[in-house]
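A reminder from the course coordinator: this example appears on the midterm review sheet, so study it carefully.

Given structure:
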């Protein structure tokens, strides 16, 4: 019986996408230089846990003593408390934020707490790389899923809109009436398409491709800055990315783009021999008939009884041997 690629016996799924010319907007594959997220982090305490907090972590107990002391309470009998957990608090500030904006924050246990579900984060300052406080976070935590069968993480949690921005971030993305685009993944053909499209509509924009992989434009006279940027980001180009095989070893997933070729080769693993040939010839039950693509290789390996981890190992070996004509990305 023929095995379909999208329904393998050992829980490994392969999706084969046929290569096609698809137009995308410039704004979807690039960003404006100077507009970026900023990471902030801090230390805090989760309280209100039901005996699932830290039990033998001195930093937690000392932090709790200091917190009570700042509230005017002198209390030394906190040794037996398991309702408190020390956490690292992290967040990402969007490109443009204002004082008073609310941001999601993530809290992660740094002690031996069994669970921080249902706890309350006590007010914690979050600082940037420059040492300044940009967010103050506080609130009840909610659990997050690990991504595997809906399983919940008990030592990492989210506080939705729990951070309040306390300091503006000065963003500079235009200097001397010029603006710069940065491609998410550099490609000369894409850069050339963007330059030609912008020149066709704005001949005075004087675009240039810099050696650092950035595309710089001059804002034409009598053209509104925001209108120019919006129009450039709305222009469409046609990317032509090379073949890729993306493997997620943890979840046993393989995603392929295009009709990826495999050179003639022989794979032997645990006594099983798989022959990959480009010409027609009789082959055995465990061999790959007229196979030239990764899709056929994976399908045959699965049919021969190899598990997901073994199939991933074979693809790695094909890549190392130079028989796999695609970029192999392993996550």
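Designed residues:
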């Amino acid at each position: 019986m023929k095995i379909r690629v999208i329904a393998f016996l050992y829980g490994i799924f392969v999706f084969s996408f046929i290569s096609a010319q698809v137009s995308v907007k410039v704004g979807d594959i690039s960003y404006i230089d100077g507009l970026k997220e900023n990471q902030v982090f801090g230390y805090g305490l989760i309280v209100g846990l039901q005996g699932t907090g830290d039990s033998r972590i001195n930093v937690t107990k000392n932090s709790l003593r200091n917190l009570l002391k700042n509230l005017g309470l002198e209390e030394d009998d906190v040794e037996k408390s398991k309702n408190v957990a020390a956490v690292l608090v992290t967040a990402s500030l969007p490109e443009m934020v204002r004082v008073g904006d609310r941001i999601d924050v993530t809290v992660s246990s740094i002690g031996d707490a069994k669970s921080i579900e249902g706890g309350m984060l006590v007010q914690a300052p979050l600082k940037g790389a420059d040492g300044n406080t940009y967010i103050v976070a506080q609130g009840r935590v909610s659990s997050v899923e690990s991504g595997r069968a809906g399983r919940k993480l008990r030592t990492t949690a989210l506080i939705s809109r729990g951070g309040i921005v306390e300091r503006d971030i000065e963003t500079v993305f235009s200097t001397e009436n010029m603006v710069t685009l940065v491609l998410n993944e550099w490609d000369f053909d894409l850069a050339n398409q963007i330059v030609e499209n912008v020149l066709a509509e704005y001949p005075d924009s004087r675009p240039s491709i810099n050696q650092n992989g950035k595309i710089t434009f001059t804002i034409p006279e009598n053209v509104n800055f925001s209108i120019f940027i919006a129009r450039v980001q709305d222009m469409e180009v046609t990317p032509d990315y090379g073949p890729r095989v993306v493997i997620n070893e943890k979840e046993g997933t393989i995603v392929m783009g295009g009709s990826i070729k495999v050179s003639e080769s022989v794979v032997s693993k645990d006594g099983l021999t798989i022959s990959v040939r480009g010409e027609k010839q009789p082959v055995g039950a465990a061999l790959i008939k007229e196979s030239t693509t990764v899709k056929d290789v994976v399908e045959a390996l699965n049919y021969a009884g190899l598990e997901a981890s073994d199939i991933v190992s074979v693809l790695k070996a094909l890549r190392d041997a130079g028989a796999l004509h695609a970029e192999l990305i392993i996550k």
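The chain has three domains: 13-19+243-330, 24-34+177-237, 38-165. Helices lie at 26-29, 58-70, 188-201, 225-234, 294-303, 308-321.
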